[in-house]
């Protein structure tokens, strides 16, 4: 994408349904080579919406300051300004009638997945996990990924370009690269987090980028997360300029390939997000 909208790409896979219910199947299309695939919602005809479970596709949890000092340290420069442990998340979910959530490894714990792993084991009926890909040159990230998936039960992996060497050099994750991967691996489904960071376009370059995001809908394995609206909007809360983005996304992808996610705490300013995502 354009330099201003590098995509956060997540891949999810699983050998069994996620949060199964009588009214909805959450299906995962596996690549067959231990690669990732993503949540695809298949609604059964004739079932009322009230029977479907509500699943938040993007939340983060992080340690309290006490836990961080004793067991789960924050990554330097990413100390959170707000509380956000799994018990707070469960309370919020209960108040909002949300049945389950995908916990994405937060950047403020970087590649230390111990805190998220604890939450997944403590509440297996409520949470599934998406780990963060570690681009370590010595290959240790691959070993960690295999451990998290095969031993700890993580169901997906996220690639964050901001922590890769190319991201540090200002080189964005280009649409052409995603298109190439989608063409080569049609059975591996893909999630573009936060609408690929596409803001409501106001110039030709941004319109071209957003059109490219919509063009990815030609690949049936690609899904969009309508999430982190504070990062997409040019306005303050309630981010009313993002409605047109959603409308066009639904027109291109269909509602069954749009996933809703909100983080954990209701972030109202863009700068807060760098502590967690």
Automatic annotation (TrEMBL):
* GO molecular function terms noted in the UniProt entry: carboxy-lyase activity; hydrolase activity
Record's keyword annotation contains Cell wall biogenesis/degradation: no
Domain Amidohydrolase-related stretches: 170-261
Pfam families associated with the record: Amidohydro_2
Enumerate the UniProt keywords alphabetically: Decarboxylase, Lyase
Q: Which domain of life is it from?
A: Eukaryota
Instruction: Provide the transmembrane region boundaries.
Output: none
Cite the PANTHER family for this sequence.
2-AMINO-3-CARBOXYLMUCONATE-6-SEMIALDEHYDE DECARBOXYLASE (PTHR21240), CATALYTIC_ HYDROLASE (PTHR21240:SF19)
Homology family: Belongs to the metallo-dependent hydrolases superfamily.
Its recorded name reads Amidohydrolase-related domain-containing protein
Q: Which organism is it from?
A: Dendrobium catenatum
């Amino acid at each position: 994408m354009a330099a201003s909208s590098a995509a956060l790409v997540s891949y999810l896979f699983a050998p069994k349904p996620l949060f199964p219910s009588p009214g909805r199947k959450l299906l995962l299309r596996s690549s067959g080579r231990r690669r990732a695939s993503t949540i695809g919602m298949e609604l059964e005809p004739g079932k009322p919406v009230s029977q479907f479970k509500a699943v938040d596709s993007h939340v983060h949890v992080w340690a309290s300051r006490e836990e961080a000092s004793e067991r789960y340290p924050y990554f330097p420069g990413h100390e959170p300004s707000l509380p956000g442990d799994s018990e707070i998340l469960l309370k919020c979910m209960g108040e909002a009638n949300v049945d389950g959530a995908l916990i994405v490894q937060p950047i403020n714990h970087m590649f230390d997945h111990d805190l998220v792993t604890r939450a997944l084991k403590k509440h297996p009926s409520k949470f599934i996990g998406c780990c963060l890909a570690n681009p370590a040159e010595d290959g240790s990230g691959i070993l960690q990924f295999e451990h998290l998936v095969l031993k700890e039960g993580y169901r997906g992996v996220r690639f964050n370009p901001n922590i890769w060497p190319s991201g540090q050099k200002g080189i964005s994750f280009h649409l052409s690269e995603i298109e190439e991967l989608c063409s080569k691996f049609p059975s591996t489904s893909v999630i573009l987090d936060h609408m690929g960071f596409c803001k409501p376009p106001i110039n030709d370059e941004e319109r071209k980028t957003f059109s490219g995001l919509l063009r990815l809908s030609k690949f049936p394995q690609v899904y969009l997360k309508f999430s982190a609206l504070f990062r997409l909007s040019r306005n303050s809360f309630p981010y009313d300029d993002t409605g047109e983005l959603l409308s066009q996304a639904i027109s291109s992808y269909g509602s069954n390939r749009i996933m809703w996610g909100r983080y954990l705490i209701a972030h109202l300013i863009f700068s807060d997000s760098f502590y967690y995502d």
